[in-house]
User: Fold these one by one.
Assistant:
Number 1:
Amino acid sequence: MSKHIAITGASGFVGQHLVPYLMKAGFWVYPVNLRMRDKFPLPELVHGATVIHLAGKAHDHKGTAKPEEYFEVNTELTKTVFNHFLQSKATLFIHFSTVAAITDEHVEGILKEDAAPHPVTPYGQSKLQAEQYLLQQELPTGKKVFILRPAMIHGPGDKGNLTLLYSIVSKGMPYPLAAFKNQRSFLSIGNLNYAIEKLLEKAAEVPSGIYNLVDDIPVSSVDLVRMIAELTGRKEKIWSVPRSLIQAIAKVGDILPLPINSKRLAKLTSNYIVSNDKIKKALGISAFPITAREGLIKTIKSFASE
């Protein structure tokens, strides 16, 4: 196994955790600056036996991004990087997609890799188109592609939906969404780092393809609220406001700058359980090293320290 790795998007949230983790594990990491896209072939790919493609446009929960921006970055830029991977000496391409490439909405049952895709947002659609392009290309002998679909990633420095929930509970405000009974899969940054290291170690044994990447056990939003209250020393205030009223307020939040809008409400309250059986079988493990609760506690504590 080569220790040379080229990483796009190294300055993003995942990259800021993954790069030092891999360096500590003894890998040589070459950040790829995609802002210099006029300079090809990418010199980092000459050195890198593995390309980890993290760069992408994240889901915009405020709804201000233009649809074409997602396709330009998540689809077209991925095509460009992958084409240069095919022409390079690199042997492994690890592409970070998302479970939203299958569906941006709630999940009935448990989401597996072979589910029929039906993304409805430009974010999910652009990620799906990138996946389809990678799978359609003929791989030269000796090259592999792993497409990873993480669920909501969290960890120290996270600025996503968990921060919204934390700000509500830590200030002693009531959580009014108990009427929504849900379970959601998350992914701690610690388990993400571990999975990448294991994939690099076992690359020769793992077949090319799509792999979901989530913690082992889903967590409900009410359980998250209780965790935050416990860790911040607040008395938990869990209210069961009628769903119809909450949904009406969220629709207003789609127009006005309220703390909650339809997208955030869906993230906090819908069911979204994802199977990670395929990647655990590929890695030869029965469980990830960090439990969902342990990972969330670490993230919540980091909010307090910030």
Note: The longest helix spans residues 67-87.
Number 2:
Amino acid sequence: MAGLVLAAVVVGAFMGRGEPAIPTSTAPAAEDPVSTVSETLVVHVSGMVLSPGVVHVPAGAIVADVVAAAGGLITGASVDHINLAAPVSSGEHIVVPGADDGTAPIPGAVGAGDAGGPVSLNNATAAELEALPGVGPVLAERIVAFRTQNGPFDVVEELLEVSGIGEAKLAALRDFVVP
């Protein structure tokens, strides 16, 4: 009997010694437990995460899910210049800066543009787009509508397909935006 109690204590102690939990979002699970290609997003994450690289997250995932899939934040990570609640799309590159990386957001990172960096055409709100030179409320809404109807921008030059943007406007915006 004592041997059985000792075995239960050892097993219980062993099972309680897992890795620390990494917070994740409460995004709803897919209804069908069988994953398909269309239900999985492929995202590159780098910077101050435990396991940088390409991660696979379910459709509807947010930046916090990508960080968790990369092993979570490491000591020295600073999330002041990324939006952990931002939705992600396949092919995106998310950079988690360190506290010593300065105060400017990293170009191309999700949420970049918060403090004067390039604005992400795929993640910016209409209000954020209005901060760009020569972009007012109407043009900002057209960019958002184009993105909604046609999917994410692959290259900045796709702005030429948005009504009201020609070569001159594209040239004026080119240094201020990323896909």
Note: Residues 41 and 143 are 23 Å apart (CA to CA).
Number 3:
Amino acid sequence: MKKEIKGVLFDLDGTLIDTVGDITYSFNALLKDLNIKQIDKEETKKYVGRGLANAIRALLKDKNYNYEESEFDSLLKVITETYATHPYESSSVYSGNIEFVQKCLDNNVKVGVLSNKDDNLTKIIINYFFPDIPFTMIQGYSKEFLAKPDPNQLIRFSKLCNCDVSEVLLIGDSDVDWQTAVNGKSQKAILTWGFKTKEQLIELGCEPLYDTITELEKELFKWN
């Protein structure tokens, strides 16, 4: 990281919070309705990152379930309604993240969240686990704009921070986050404890990679 960091923008799933349990529960509600064998947490991780609609399409394709496009909204509704009733029951903040976010604020670095999860769910989950953190932006997916890796919301965050996008650090756990940072020309940090393995991230060309929050802290705060 060559420039001073004035804003840190976090991904949600697999980065700030381990949400895979609640996502799996929601996916399995749909699979049960369709009489398809349920999946475990590890299989769920394959589908997370590009938004719920894309996840469902990929999941049902892998399960060889054919549907009419006119049916899709009803399939999506099963998952969204299930998730809304269990938004954080099986989720937890990754160790050290609450302290890390607070350390950003203590160093006058603004913080935000950008997720491809539904906007309402994103706000519910973040406000539950981080009730006292004054995030500059909490943004989930909305039909009003393109999802990550489109960089427009990353750029909007930089404007809210009154800084250049090159002074924003985007922290995520996937190639989607990495590509978002590349597209927006921000700084980037990809974590290896999320929903993709370190080997997968290396194969996808993601860098720089961080194995622990302490490792990331040491590099981030030497610039501030």
Note: The chain has a mean pLDDT of 94.
Number 4:
Amino acid sequence: MKTFLRTLVVLASLSPLACSAATTEEYKLGQHYMKVRQAVAPANPAKIEVLEVFAYSCPHCYSLEPLVRKWRERLPADVEFVRSPHSLGMSQNEPRNRAFYAARMLNVLDRFHPALFDAVHKERKTMATPADLRALFVQSTGLKGEEFDGAFGSFAADAGFRRGENAIRDFGITSVPTMVVDGKYFVSPNMSNGLEGLLKVTDHLIERARKERAKR
């Protein structure tokens, strides 16, 4: 009898812990994330698009980079991650952003993007002139300066820059870093309790978008 009672006491003491461990955090619209002002269908309708809006001048965006790098490794096959730089109305960001689109055109963004972030925040370089960006581009990608010149000054890079700025404005985004999921919802660190929380809420929104698509 005593053994049976002791067992009941142990089970009673463990049950609250078990219930606590089983609960999941609930994220709410209007509190942890918001709807965009103007929804935009993803460029690839077969994928759930996660768009990171960032600025090269933003230290929080730079701090987010290593977290995003690890997070991207576990994204499911139905999710597509893309980036869009925001000028934030700062003149030094405009040539940096045009260089971003030039690197994307030349398929070397994965090499140039982290190098530019490091140059601005780690090495404390201005990186706001075409000449500085050209030198970094050649150093980080191994391509020729003439290739950068052609892409940087191209109509396509200019169009990409303007299209990105307009889309961010239409979404109603005024701060960075921000994640936009499936062109419908967005979340920032202020809403999600920091950078790691930003990615957790993004995961939640990916699942929400997946369920919404299944109902179509």
Note: The first strand starts at residue 34 and ends at 35.
